[in-house]
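Forgive a beginner's question, but would it be possible to get any protein sequence you like and the tokens describing how it folds?
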Amino acid sequence: MERRTIGAGALAVGAVGLGCMPMSWAYNGSRQRGDESVRAVHRALDLGVTLLDTADMYGPFTNELLLGRVLRERRAEAFVSTKVGLLVGDQHIVANGRPGYVKRACDASLRRLQTDVIDLYQLHRADPEVPVEETWGAMAELVQAGKVRALGLCAVGARGGRRSGARMHDATLRQLRRVQQVFPVTAVQAELSVWSPEALEALLPWCAARGVGFLAAMPLGNGFLTGTLRPGEGFEPDDLRARHPRFTAEMMAANQPIVAGLRRVARRYGDEVTAAQVALAWVLAQGAHVVPVPGTKRGRWAAENAGAAQVRLSAEDLAELGRLPAAQGSWD
């Protein structure tokens, strides 16, 4: 697989990453199978997918433990990315950016992942009660201690940090400017896909101008852009899509033209190319510093996602995808 570099330190990763969250968190809990997920991670590594993205809150903790089962055998082949800053309670999630907590959380993640160093340690969310510079400073000390190789920042959620008239990523850009004064940002993770292209406006250019890598979260639109979800099929109560306004039966039906456009482009590349691969190829085409991180818990889909690195969309295809209708339904 093509390799891409992220950050000024030129950390090399496979062009397509693997989002591990669905293996333990947020999607169809009844279908999560630890052994099957472990096989999916092995399959991804076999295909050159090196960036494995997790977080201590996924599970919580069980996702890192699952990855640890693979890393104890194949650590040298993997680029390990995990996150800190969110605590999961009973029906709620809170931020914790206190320096002492960050350092303890890092040690706990290292134990669960069965490794002595985290390649990319990301701040999941800033704690509103703690200056982000203090949290970032504690994370920088982990780099100096040799426990972490590089630092990343996850974008503020679509429903957070918005002000009247503000662009979606204004709050994230303000945070980036602050933490960049403390220690270099290697990567930013934010949603980017054909149906959620907002990062192209300001966040992606900010990263490109500074040599910062961009990890594209949810590049398959929480599964919608694969074309495998049917309107009205429903989701399990613990599935985040059960509460997502784009996943009502009405909105899923209304957004089918987006999937149809992806399929139309895919047909030009042969029967083996899928709508999902075209969606990922579109993300890859947004810049050499961009690495899509599609999530899955199945080896079959991990292999399909990895194959997207071989799809090279033409300028005409990209222009056609750029003309697809905007997605209907949003958090805002």
